[in-house]
Amino acid sequence: MAGVSFVSLLVAAFILSSELTLAQNPPASVVPPAMFGSTAASTKIPAPTTATTVHITTTAIHNTTAHTNATTTAVPANATTAYVNITTTAPVQNTTATLTTPHSAHTTTHKPQPTPPTNLTVGNYTYKSGGKLCVMVLAAIQVNVSNSKATGLFIVQPNSVTVAGNCDASTSNIDLKFKEGSISLGFVKNDTTKKVYVNTVAVNLIYAFSNGGLYNISKTNTSLQLFSMEVGHSYSCKSEPVFLGDGINLDFSKQKIQAFNFINNQFGPVDLCKADQPNYKVAIAVGVVLIILIVIVVIAYLISRRKRTDGYQTL
């Protein structure tokens, strides 16, 4: 029993000595070694770091977003070193890229083309008012254009023409209308001079000439004196152009026109244009030359005969 008591005393002494040693030397993991009662400054432990979730958005092809979750582990208050565990989750998506090529809608605009060549055709255009014949035009008509904007011909086709107009005692008008435009002639009767003539010409035309583009012609002249004829007569010409300016001509061929004073709805006596009137100057000149030659021949004959007579003596 004495042995057991002695061993118990030794164990108790050893435990008491260990507790005193631990009390004097705290663990190095908490603070630096120092004696109790020392004036050394104690180190402050930083506050625990709050875990933060960082979302990183990466734009991939076809709007595929990879999300990365960053997780920070809170640091214990009694630790001197902070360990951060970062776990990254990158979902991978298999995407099949489909490339779509937009197709532009191509609209082809076809330029207006001139009508195929047509024959120059004589048309018979008449306008009546109240059953009374006012104007009669017999002609082949065409518009001739030659300038920097267009070059070509527009031929009026009689079977596509609609006739309109108006007339009174001293004025009359005839309008030739077709799908491309119209041509108008205005007539005036002068009772003083006993003459009838055209004082107004108007051409309105939208047409594709040889250049392939639509060309707009709008010409009006109200101070003319064309196709002059006697009252009751008709005016005739094989070919006559009317100049409208800008390289534009209104051409009449095989023309015969009349306004006012018809008899039995027929053309009156013909007044020819100057180009078709007979030229007597050449005939007169030729006649004068012939007369002079005849006179010269006669004079030469008389002179030669007199010389032969003088060579004989009287018996």
Write a short abstract of this structure.
The chain is built from two helices and 14 strands, in the order αββββββββββββββα.
Features:
37% strand; 6-stranded mixed beta sheet; 17% helix; alpha+beta; 6-stranded antiparallel beta sheet; 2 helices; 315 residues; elongated; single chain
Tell me what the structure shows.
The protein is 17% helix and 37% strand. It has 2 helices and 14 strands; from the N terminus they run αββββββββββββββα. It has helices at 2-24, 280-310, and strands at residues 54-59, 65-70, 123-129, 132-146, 151-155, 162-167, 171-178, 181-190, 195-208, 214-221, 226-230, 234-245, 248-259, 270-272. β4 (132-146) and β5 (151-155) form a beta hairpin. The N and C termini lie far apart (235 Å).
Furnish the topology, listing elements before pairings.
Layout: H1 2-24, E1 54-59, E2 65-70, E3 123-129, E4 132-146, E5 151-155, E6 162-167, E7 171-178, E8 181-190, E9 195-208, E10 214-221, E11 226-230, E12 234-245, E13 248-259, E14 270-272, H2 280-310
Parallel strand pairs: 12-14
Antiparallel strand pairs: 1-2, 3-4, 4-5, 4-13, 6-7, 7-8, 8-9, 9-10, 9-11, 12-13
The number of distinct β-strands equals 14
From the spread of the alpha carbons, the general shape counts as elongated
Round the Cα radius of gyration to an integer and report it. 62 Å
Beta percentage is: 35-45%
Overall average residue pLDDT: 74
Distance between the termini: 235 Å
Q: What structural class is derived from the secondary structure elements?
A: alpha+beta
Give helix % range: 10-25%
Task: Note the total helix count.
Answer: 2
The ordered H/E elements are HEEEEEEEEEEEEEEH
In terms of quaternary structure, the protein is single chain
> How is the biggest beta sheet arranged?
6 strands, mixed
> pLDDT under 50 segments (min length 5)?
27-92, 95-101
